[in-house]
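Submission checklist for the structure archive. All mandatory fields must be present; incomplete records are returned to the submitter.

[x] Identifier: Reverse transcriptase zinc-binding domain-containing protein
[x] Organism: Aegilops tauschii subsp. strangulata
[x] Residue count: 73
[x] Sequence attached
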Amino acid sequence: MNVALMLRWVWRILRGDGGLWLQLIESKYLQGQPLLACSHSAGSQFWKSVQAIKDEIRLGLRFSVGNGSGTQF
């Protein structure tokens, strides 16, 4: 059940679906990087759990490049 809950939190981070808590995560840990590219591993227990679950998220993700204007390499 913890995996499902953590995947839900990661999904909300990826979609930008959040308020103050998401602003805190973006400011403290992401610092302008996309979640899946961020390698910042130190921090709260929540953040360590997010980092540990990223491999499961990658298994089910699909990217749409479109015109490439929002794509980072």
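[x] Structure attached
Curator remark: Helices lie at 2-15, 20-30, 45-60. The chain has one domain: 7-60.
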